[in-house]
């Protein structure tokens, strides 16, 4: 898929303020700092479309980007960031959960996992919830440029073994790097295929 246009549409604090349109949406979620916004920029080849920061908790709203006027990419706030005020944290999680469970236009959720660290309880808990929410999802192992491909493969194997008891069907898996653009074509092809079959 060629990205001809990538335009910021709006930021929403909750499900009620999401765009009123009919584009299929593909959302990116994961722990704070896992690389969601960086991946959005890498996929679209726009350096500053989504805001990237080394400080966790940068993305605080649901951010919608219109791609080729045909589909939509959603950069979601990260979960599991302890320093966000307790009150805010609840609101973020509620808004994200409402969106994922209640958005009819949502086609697929990409759950980003840091390829360098062992399975985290919060990722497993989120995936368990996602599975009960009956939403299609895929896994993306990020920051693959930071280690050897053998180590990344090992991380994927370990993670899939950890989710096997809670998720009966193995989801599609991608390995990515926002720096080298590894995984970009595969993820875009996956989205293109889903859009084509949803017609
Ligand atoms: P929040 O919005 O805070 O939840 O974070 P996020 O998941 O959007 O992460 P973000 O894209 O802001 O990236 C966090 C940090 O990781 C930044 O310093 C990025 O430069 C770095 N980073 C993201 N992706 C990659 C990658 O593929 N490789 C490397 N080496 N660093 C990355
Ligand atoms: Mg972000």
Secondary structure layout plus pairing:
Layout: E1 6-12, E2 25-30, H1 36-44, E3 62-67, E4 71-75, H2 86-102, E5 106-114, H3 121-132, E6 137-142, H4 149-163, E7 173-175, H5 184-198
Parallel strand pairs: 2-4, 2-5, 5-6, 6-7
Antiparallel strand pairs: 1-3, 3-4
Question: pLDDT under 50 segments (min length 5)?
Answer: none
* Global shape: globular
CATH class: Alpha Beta
CATH topology: Rossmann fold
Folded structure, characterized:
The structure is a single chain. By secondary structure, the chain is of the alpha/beta class. It has one domain (6-198): P-loop containing nucleotide triphosphate hydrolases (Rossmann fold, 3-Layer(aba) Sandwich). Helices cover 34% and strands 21% of the residues. The protein contains 5 helices and 7 strands, in the order E-E-H-E-E-H-E-H-E-H-E-H. The chain has helices spanning 36-44, 86-102, 121-132, 149-163, 184-198; strands at residues 6-12, 25-30, 62-67, 71-75, 106-114, 137-142, 173-175. A 7-stranded mixed beta sheet has the order 1-3-4-2-5-6-7, with helices on both faces. A hairpin with a 3-residue loop joins strand 3 (62-67) and strand 4. It is globular and about 40 Å long. It starts with 5 loop residues before the first strand and ends with a helix. The structure holds guanosine-5'-triphosphate and magnesium ion (MG).
